[in-house]
Design a protein that fits this description.
The complex is a heterodimer of chains A (147) and B (147). Helices cover 66% and strands 0% of the residues of chain A. By secondary structure, chain A is mainly α. Chain B starts with 5 loop residues before the first helix and ends with a helix. The chains are: A mainly alpha (147), B mainly alpha (147). Chain A binds chain B through residues 27, 30-31, 34-36, 98, 109-110, 112-114, 116-121, 123, 125-126, 128-129, 132, and chain B through 27, 30-31, 34-35, 52, 55-56, 102, 109-110, 112-114, 116-121, 123, 125-126, 128-129, 132-133.
Chain lengths: 147, 147
């Protein structure tokens, strides 16, 4: 459960991105495609070469959605309702089970790496914990309507 | 047997060469206990784990973190025989320590994030890819002797 302190830390971290949201999104996706090649299967229609416009564009979308989620942490289910529908009925990204893992968890791992790269020591254990919890909550909401 | 390309071996070695086993080990274990508090169940005799500050400063956590990462170093010295290297430790974690192997994956992901925060941009996507593969292989090897 996200505590008040968690929410504060998440907002602070997001604030520290200072306009680099698009790069953060693109880098997160690129790392995910590099470290977890099976995630590319969801983007057969994309140019997945490094720095492609499509990766940048999609990274920007993903980060914008996370930004919306962060503004609505008290009501993630509602705020992400449309995206939840999209992922469940349209995109149908495999939610995994105990094994293999939900692709969104892999995205979360890569986002954390990008934040850690950028923030260094400022990516404290407390911040790490808050972001991890938040991304788990987002993934859970996006998987809510699968069945 | 896992295949490692020359590039992967080089990426792993170049990061490892700069790692303080004591610092990174302590930090990774502390973060495991902070980000995934249920993992504290394995360390009930470690004393004060009541807050992130307590965990980070706890000398038993630091010492054990160093032990764990030193053992990880053995994998890196023996990339071509990781299963053999961890055979006894795997049996130990199952028979004596009763650790759910899922925890190895959690620690592996945390280690990657710790490395990212220490090395910043040097922890490139290719680097992350090699290290995610390594932590995955180690986790798998540690789970192998479970019954």
């Amino acid at each position: 459960m996200l505590t008040a302190e968690d929410k504060k830390l998440i907002q602070q971290v997001w604030g520290k991105m200072g306009g680099a949201e698009e790069e953060v999104g693109a880098e997160t996706l690129w790392r995910m495609f590099t470290a977890y090649p099976p995630t590319k299967t969801y983007f057969p229609h994309f140019d997945l070469s490094q720095g492609s416009d499509q990766i940048r564009g999609h990274g920007k979308k993903v980060v914008a959605a996370l930004g919306t989620a962060i503004k609505n942490m008290d009501n993630l289910s509602q705020a992400l309702s449309e995206l939840s529908n999209l992922h469940a009925y349209n995109l149908r990204v495999d939610p995994g089970g105990s094994n293999p893992r939900f692709a969104l968890q892999l995205l979360a791992q890569c986002l954390q790496v990008v934040l850690a790269v950028r923030l260094g020591k400022e990516y404290t254990p407390e911040v790490h914990s808050a972001v991890d919890k938040f991304m788990s909550a987002v993934a859970a909401v996006l998987a809510e309507k699968y069945r | 047997m896992v295949h490692w390309s020359a590039e992967e071996k080089q990426l792993i070695a170049s990061v490892w060469g700069k790692v303080s086993v004591e610092e990174c080990g302590a930090e990774a274990l502390a973060r495991l206990l902070i980000v995934y508090p249920w993992t504290q169940r394995f360390f009930s005799d470690f004393g004060n784990l009541s807050s992130p500050t307590a965990i980070i400063g706890n000398p038993k956590v630091r010492a054990h973190g160093k032990k764990v990462l030193t053992s990880f170093g053995e994998a890196i010295k023996n990339l071509d025989s990781i299963k053999g290297t961890f055979s006894k430790l795997s049996a130990l974690h199952c028979d004596k320590l009763h650790v759910d192997p899922e925890n190895f994956r959690l620690l592996g992901d945390i280690l990657v994030i710790v490395l990212a925060s220490h090395f910043g941009r040097d922890f490139s996507p290719a680097c992350q890819c090699a290290w995610q593969k390594l932590v995955g292989v180690v986790a798998h090897a540690l789970a192998r002797k479970y019954h």
